[in-house]
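pinging the channel bc i need a second pair of eyes. not urgent but kinda urgent?? the chain im working w is below, pasted from the shared doc
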Amino acid sequence: MERNGGNVDLTSATGAIASGSPEASRPTLREVSREQARSRIIQGSMTALAASGLDATVDEVAQAAGVSRRTVFRHFANQGELILATLIEVRRKLDEGMPGPPPPGADLETWLTESVVRAHELFRTLIGRFFWDLYTERHHISPEVTARISGAMALRQHYAKLFADAAWRAIGGEGEAPIWVRDSFALHSSGFATNAFPAYSAEETGQLCARLLWLTLTTALNEQRQELAEARSKGSVTTDRAQE
């Protein structure tokens, strides 16, 4: 796009738009600024919710985001809409940050410790005290937020199952992890344990919980191996008797 005598060449500009140039597909500065402001407010909301739960005020959100109260409501019609957007972002960050299965050749106990520490770091940073509000009935919040909270509660079990099954397979267990092993992971790698030890750092909580989960896994594995050995022994005895 050229300038002739200080004027913009509209013909070139129109041609660029019509040709689908990169300039035409880029968001405007206003759109970029708006998205950055929304993101900043959501980050502030995450900080406020982690510190105060659903009792967090819009003023606390504004302060954490470094914006005015008016700016918050310029981007979100009400507090419920803001909470909903915050929960969606929390879910996205959890999905990105939760540990995966151990890589081939990894030391399993070290992997378990690092993974549980990582989980508690995420719960401490992203959820904090808000975790307790997931299990407290609130009549003043919108149905949309209530539904999202219910989904977050189910998500804890989902993460626990994935984590427990990955650890169980890695340690040599057959089939899916026993229910009581999954329940142990649901407790010790979730916000329950994170908030149960407020004087501990996320790393300290993670290391403690990882030791308990390692004992859980090895105990369950020994039990399964013993049960399989007994089953094979009984099968062998039955076969011998049938042949007599």
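so The beta strands are 3-4, 7-8. and The chain has two domains: 1-76, 101-244. — does that match what u expected or am i reading it wrong
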